[in-house]
Design goal:
Number of domains: 1
Largest sheet: 13 strands, antiparallel
Strand content: over 45%
Radius of gyration: 19 Å
Number of helices: 1
Helix content: under 10%
CATH class: Mainly Beta
Distance between the termini: 45 Å
Order of helices and strands: HEEEEEEEEEEEEEEE
CATH superfamily: Nucleoside-specific channel-forming protein, Tsx-like
Number of strands: 15
Structural class: mainly beta
Length: about 250
């Protein structure tokens, strides 16, 4: 059995353990939201988010839930645009299960809120990635959410590499307005060991709070940032694409 099959089975096994363990466990918290994003200046020829006008529309279904021994995060992006490869629409999804070892009795403390095993499965048009590693939630002043996942990564572009993924949500207020600043950064390498950095920070205003429904409807901007070595000319490229964003929290 080759190394690829061993890794794929190991990651699949870890995710299956997390999913099966979660089934009988009582869900502690769950939330699902829908996002509509209208983006501009998309010219990412590496990932295929590349249109003549730079415009791209994305509808995202986003879910997060916790259970007795961990959490799950998943999303699906439905993207539409006049892509240069001739396709008019595409799908991309990720699943992130985690099993917290401190909830199984191992010690924690300091800035560590929870820590344990982390997995990730990515699937898109002509792309897949399997990841397994460790993850932690952190206790940081001013942060509603702060965490870090570190993975071994296998994908069909870079093969064997690694990924580091911090994520965060910071709530704050400006006068009567309630805002959140959140997002993530994914740092990995390509096949030639060159850094590939993806970030998508968001700044959202709770517009639902002005209508007596706080936390239900948010509006703002998400900024798509991708730094990579362009396969066309071998030069480093930074894609910087602002997106107007509307988020509805269904439940």
């Amino acid at each position: 059995m080759n190394l690829h099959r061993v890794i794929v089975r190991a990651v699949a096994g870890a995710m299956l353990v997390a999913a099966v363990a979660a089934a009988p466990a009582r869900a502690e918290f769950g939330t699902t939201n829908f996002q509509l994003l209208q983006g501009y200046s998309f010219d990412d020829n590496l990932l295929g988010y590349d249109t003549p006008t730079g415009n791209m529309t994305t509808v995202t279904v986003n879910h997060f839930s916790t259970w007795a021994y961990g959490d799950n995060f998943a999303f699906v992006d439905m993207q539409r645009g006049n892509f240069k490869d001739g396709k008019g629409a595409t799908l991309y999804g990720e699943w992130h299960p985690r099993l917290f070892l401190d909830r199984l009795g191992l010690p924690t403390g300091g800035i560590l809120k929870h820590w344990g095993l982390a997995g990730e499965l990515n699937q898109g048009r002509g792309f897949y990635a399997y990841m397994a590693g460790v993850g932690a939630d952190l206790k940081l002043p001013g942060f509603a959410v702060a965490g870090l996942n570190v993975y071994y990564r296998y994908d069909n572009f870079a093969y064997h590499t690694w990924q580091v993924s911090p994520f965060w949500i910071v709530p704050f207020g400006v006068g009567p307005a309630r805002l959140t600043f959140g997002g993530f950064v994914d740092v990995t390498t390509n096949r030639d060991k060159e850094l590939d950095v993806m970030a998508q920070p968001q700044l959202l205003v709770d517009v639902g709070a002005f209508a007596g429904a706080p936390g239900k409807l948010r509006a703002g901007v998400e900024w798509y940032l991708h730094s990579y070595v362009n396969f066309v000319d071998g030069e480093r490229k930074l894609v910087s694409a602002p997106q107007a964003m509307l988020q509805w929290v269904a439940f």
